[in-house]
Amino acid sequence: MFYKIIYQNRRSKLVNKIQESGILLFLGNSEASCNYLSNQYQFRQDSTFLYFWGIDQSDLAAIIDLESGEEVLFGNDVDIDDIIWMGPQPLLKEKGAKVGVEKCEPFAKLEDYVKKAISQGRKVHFLPPYRNHNKILLNSLLGIGFDQMKSAASVPFIKGVVDLRLYKESCEIEELDAVADLGYDMHYAAMKGMRLGMLEQELVGVMEGICRAKGTMPSFPIILSQNGETLHNHSHNQIITEGRMLLIDAGAEANSHYASDFTRTLPCSGKFTQKQAEIYSIVAKANNLAIEMSAPGVIYRDVHLACYKVIAQGLIDLGLMRGNADEAVAAGAPALFMPHGLGHNIGLDVHDMEDLGENYVGYDETYVRSKQPGLGSLRMGKELKEGIVVSDEPGIYFIPALIEQWKADGTCKEFINFDKVKDYYNFGGIRLEDDILITADGCRLLGSKRLPIGVQEVENELIK
Predict the structure, then answer these.
(1) 3-state secondary structure string, the chain?
(2) pLDDT at position 258
(3) Counts for the chain of helices (H) and strands (E), in that order
(4) Domains of the chain from N-terminus onward
(5) What's the predicted TM-score (pTM) here?
(6) Average pLDDT per run of 10 along the chain, which is 464 residues long?
(7) Which among 27, 67, 71, 119 is least buried, having the fewest CB atoms inside 10 angstroms?
(8) How far is it, in rounded angstroms, from Cα 309 to Cα 65?
């Protein structure tokens, strides 16, 4: 939790940004049962609620009156049964005071407050819900059908939140630097611990242990697999095998809930084969180019396309693609090998604010999402500005099913050497990801160091 003035200022700025009447309704998250009622998943508070209200506790809601400026926090104090299991807890008003909220009410009073506003013809602004508990609550409070909640969410509210959360304050950058270092620790442990003959799952356990020792949990389920061509592979049941590569995409979530997200691809035996090193070097070149290009005023879609050109030219040089690199990029041909976008925003969420809608976060009225394969998957495509944090994660993947589909359909056949590509069906995939902060005159990597990125750097670390 930050100083209360930070939360007060955030709420004040939000009200000033939303030129609307009515009330803003903030819903925190509730506990969620795992396999029976009292065995629950680890609690995770809603990130927007954390950003504006700072209280990491279940079953809370809050209201801001856009006309009067009144702020009300709704929640319940613990009873004796709670105390038996949890111990004494601070009162809600004590927690509210720490974030600058004077008026606190029992949770049951939320319905009275909302229904009164509705009876007065006032608009209730809410954000798109993603938890079923809050969908049910909104249905009860507002009578909105479950299939209508996303479209009925308040666009001014969404845009106001995005416009504040997108640009990181100095206190947030400190947290992001620290959790970047924790993410580095996870990856270094995997690099040092990887041995031929061990289960992938063992490395996942090591990484999760480091994360939980210094933070709350991984920022997303760890991706660690020798089948790197499967972009989000959460299966960890294979043996680390000579001649293969291990793709590790993982990050940490700090106690403050800020996130990191890094990817490295390692040769299982400690040294890349020539074929692996050739493809790896192309991806590393694209990654470094994105860092060189990223600065205020630069359009991240242009950075994505520049990385696509590096990938296209590199594959042309190896004979896997053909023709002119610029023309190949214009046709969308590199999407066969990199079907995802270059990066996404990072903050309190590892894919920051995507619950509010990717197009509100990564695009705007000037920069709209493309429908072209690959480019259409770019989550962050608009102008970079100081304070934005984005991932830089180019990759090259050989996905046999996708290659066969493109071949059958004749997609970009003038740019793809399908006969040569067939020799790579068992290659896997390579992704290299760093987290970058846009600064006043360029960008910098988050954290105090960088994970090894060059072929020789990686091999040197693995053989130590």
Answers:
(1) CCCHHHHHHHHHHHHHHCCCCCEEEEECCCCCEEEECCEECCCCCCHHHHHHHCCCCCCCEEEEECCCCCEEEECCCCCHHHHHHHCCCCCHHHHHHHCCCCEEECCCHHHHHHHHHHHCCCCEEECCCCCHHHHHHHHHHHCCCHHHHHHHCCHHHHHHHHHHHCCCCHHHHHHHHHHHHHHHHHHHHHHHHCCCCCEHHHHHHHHHHHHHHHCCEECCCCEEECCCCCCCCCCCCCECCCCCEEEEEECEECCCCCECCEEEEEECCCCCCHHHHHHHHHHHHHHHHHHHHCCCCCEHHHHHHHHHHHHHHHHHHCCCECCCHHHHHHHCHHHHCCCCCCCCECCCCCCCCHHHCHHHHHCCCCCCCCCCCCHHHCCCCCECCCCCEEEECCEEECCHHHHHHHHHHCCCCCCECHHHHHHHCCCCEEECEEEEEECCCCEEECCCCCCCCCHHHHHHHHHC
(2) 98
(3) 17, 17
(4) 4-165 (3.40.350.10), 170-463 (3.90.230.10)
(5) 0.96
(6) 96 96 97 92 97 97 97 94 87 96 97 96 97 96 95 97 98 98 97 96 97 96 97 94 98 98 97 98 98 98 98 98 98 98 98 97 96 93 98 98 97 98 97 98 97 96 80
(7) 119
(8) 50
8 A C-beta contact, residue 167 and residue 385: yes
